[in-house]
Design brief:
Elements (H helix, E strand, L loop, with lengths): L6 H7 L5 E10 L4 E6 L12 E8 L2 E8 L9 E6 L7 H4 L7 E4 L17 E7 L4 H6 L3 H6 L2 E8 L6 H12 L4 H4 L3 E7 L10 H6 L2 H6 L9 E7 L1 H13 L13 E5 L4
This protein binds adenosine-2'-5'-diphosphate.
Length: 270
């Protein structure tokens, strides 16, 4: 198997018209999850919450996957949060990157988990499972989120407690950030649950919404299409079930072309 190449070596072999960025840091959270940062091309623009196609050379050929950009649109570096799939064509290689290695990135970012795709509201729910938290890692560090909403509730559900750590790290970073901290303080709330271990909060977010426990724990009223907005990112099954609950509460699904009360996007999967 080809190992990741240094940025210089990759630049010599990569196709034209692609950004070649340098990995600047890597943090491994569990044997299934890691976070990494790269340099950002000066000409690369994106909206917080969007995804990009990133990749490596695999046996000499570029191999790309969609990755939510976890850093906010104003940040100097790009951040990504990834699963590691032992036999995954990309992640089996990507999990070996180290600072100085090169990463391929296509030049356009896109996506529906953007503030522009939501109609105005007061309370924004961000529902995530697993690596589906990545686009929200971007949005909770963007001051515009707090200019548009009075309350921002980030929910993150994983199988195990260790998988929640990245969420706690980015919430701490948002609250402590010199630029975003004063906006986020008093508005950003984090609700973390696990489904396969004991913890302070347990259960799928869909079950916690249906039983009313989520709202009771947070001390907020039931979903109301007049004030509540939502963004959903997780597995296909999680998207479907959470979407059904929001539709049942009277929220309509939006898109870039037609903003609505909530938007959805599938988390990266290999
Ligand atoms: P569970 O442990 O009950 O399957 P995965 O790693 O499979 O994507 O799961 C990440 C988290 O999402 C797990 O806590 C899992 O709970 C939860 N989950 C899986 N499917 C759904 C669903 N349809 N609705 C809500 N949560 C889900």
């Amino acid at each position: 198997m080809t190992l990741p190449l240094s940025a210089e070596a990759l630049a010599q072999q990569a196709p034209d018209g692609i950004f070649i960025e340098t990995v600047t840091s890597v943090t491994h959270y569990t044997d299934r999850l890691f976070r990494f940062r790269t340099t950002r091309p000066a000409s690369f623009r994106f909206r917080s919450g969007e995804f990009a196609m990133i990749g490596l050379l695999a046996e000499g050929k570029p191999l790309y996957r969609a990755y939510s950009i976890a850093s906010p649109s104003w940040a100097e570096e790009l951040e990504f949060f990834s699963i590691k799939v032992p036999d995954g064509p990309l992640t089996s290689r990507l999990q070996m990157v180290r600072p100085g290695d090169g990463l391929l990135m296509r030049k356009k970012a896109t996506g529906t988990l953007v503030l522009d795709a939501l109609t105005p509201g007061r309370r924004l729910y961000m529902f995530s499972t697993g690596t589906g938290i990545a686009p929200f890692a971007s949005l909770i560090r963007d001051p515009e989120t707090y200019e548009k909403f009075d309350e921002v509730i980030l929910t993150h559900t994983c199988r195990e407690v260790a998988e929640l750590k990245y969420g706690f790290d980015i919430v701490e970073e948002a609250l402590g950030d010199p630029l975003v901290g004063e906006y986020a303080q008093g508005k950003l709330r984090h609700y973390a649950t696990v489904t396969r271990e004991d913890y302070a909060h347990t259960g799928r977010i869909t079950d916690l919404m249906t039983s009313g426990k989520l709202h009771a724990d947070l001390g907020v009223p039931p979903l109301d299409p007049a004030v509540d907005r939502g963004m959903i990112c997780g597995s296909l099954a999680m998207l479907r079930d959470t979407r059904d609950l929001l539709l049942a509460a009277g929220l309509d699904e939006g898109s870039n072309a037609t903003p609505g009360a909530f938007v959805t996007e599938r988390a990266f999967a290999e």
